[in-house]
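Quick start: read one record
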Amino acid sequence: MSSFMDKNITYILMAGVALLSGFCLYKARKPKELGKSWHVPWNGLLFLNILILLLLVRHIFTLSGIDFPTR
């Protein structure tokens, strides 16, 4: 029986997070409009996307049978 988070779903999520990270990087490097009082914290979203991407890579390793040492 297949678990909910199998390799195919993980790869699809990794692709989506990578695309969203690229969009966040594009928006973070774009100059801010003058007179605009609020903007989305793109650098914070980019940090969260990279964190999620690293966790998904770890999940792929775990699904492949590669165990990492615990603390």
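Helices lie at 7-29, 42-63.
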